[in-house]
Design a protein that fits this description.
With 282 residues, the protein is of the alpha/beta class. It contains 11 helices and 11 strands. The strands form 3 sheets. Strands 1, 2, 3, 10 and 11 form a 5-stranded parallel β-sheet that branches. Helix 5 crosses helix 6.
């Protein structure tokens, strides 16, 4: 089974600064470039292509990185502009963010960006109106819905297969749900923090289980490999907010030293390509 490997290009503090504090001058760091280039190198070694969901602000700050990703034959897709969760945006704000990011990425990469992933998987039952705007903006597919109940995201009971969703505006869009597996009463995702926190045998078992029925859709972040611990600037946080931010920071740093080895095993054990490639047979 050919699975889809997807990489969300952002800084790990994007949620803290963009979604919690709405800090407008928190520009992407050079770490985004350094860590993304590591992924480009290891993907080249394994002759594997991936879909890169990229923030507009990353493309704005580091345009050459987008060109490098595209020249290497990977798919360029949209991850919003400022990593703001959809339920914190109006319809007009969401349309502008996605439209601006799509145009910028297409101009830099020379390829059409047909895919979208919402920051923090923030399309759910309450924000599904965003799918209508994506269809209007010319997106072929979305890959934002996680069919589970997480702490910050999820749409429990959502269909796990890739499928075309009819929309209330008369259009439709292909939904490529994130892969999850059921562990009795608990549903877990694959990749990202799950791969970082849990032993590799969980990831291997989960993908093996899923690909018996459908392609596994796996996500990673460039920052997952970054072991250079930079203390977060918590000056803007107070009280419980500072405690919450510190816990988030500690959680984000945990087990990063294991991720490079896990990525090597992942690329050795399974076959991956872009979402666009998988949809050719849809």
């Amino acid at each position: 089974m050919l699975n889809a490997l997807t990489i969300d290009v952002e800084d790990y503090w994007s949620i803290l600064y963009r979604d919690w504090l709405h800090v407008k001058d928190a520009i992407p760091s050079e770490a985004v470039v350094r860590n993304t280039r590591w992924f480009l190198q290891v993907l080249a070694e394994y002759n594997t292509k991936a879909t890169f969901f990229i923030l507009g602000e990353v493309a704005q700050c580091f345009p050459e990185l987008i060109k490098e990703i595209s020249r290497a034959g990977h798919e360029i897709a949209v991850h919003g502009f400022y990593h703001r969760q959809i339920f914190k945006l109006s319809r007009d704000e969401f349309k502008k963010e996605t439209g601006d990011a799509k145009k910028l990425l297409e101009d830099l990469s020379g390829q059409e960006a047909i895919g979208h992933r919402a920051p923090a998987f923030s399309i759910n039952k309450d924000t599904q109106w965003a799918l209508e705007i994506l269809a209007e903006e010319g997106f072929v597919y979305d890959s934002s819905i996680s069919p589970m109940q997480g702490r910050r995201y999820g749409w429990p009971g959502f269909k796990k297969e890739i499928h075309r969703m009819p929309l209330t505006n008369g259009q439709s869009i292909i939904e490529v749900p994130m892969s999850t597996v059921s562990l009795g009463i608990k549903e877990l995702g694959i990749g990202g923090g799950y791969m970082r926190h849990l032993p590799y045998f969980y990831t291997k078992w989960a993908i093996g289980h899923i690909q018996k029925k459908r392609p596994a859709i796996i996500y990673l972040h460039p920052y997952e490999i970054d072991t250079d611990i930079v203390l977060l600037k918590l000056d803007n946080f107070t009280g419980q907010g500072k405690i919450k931010a510190f816990k988030f920071h500690k959680s984000q740093m945990r087990n990063r030293q294991t991720v490079k080895g896990k990525v090597d095993k992942l690329l050795l054990d399974f076959k991956f390509s872009t979402i666009k490639s998988i949809l050719r047979n849809f």
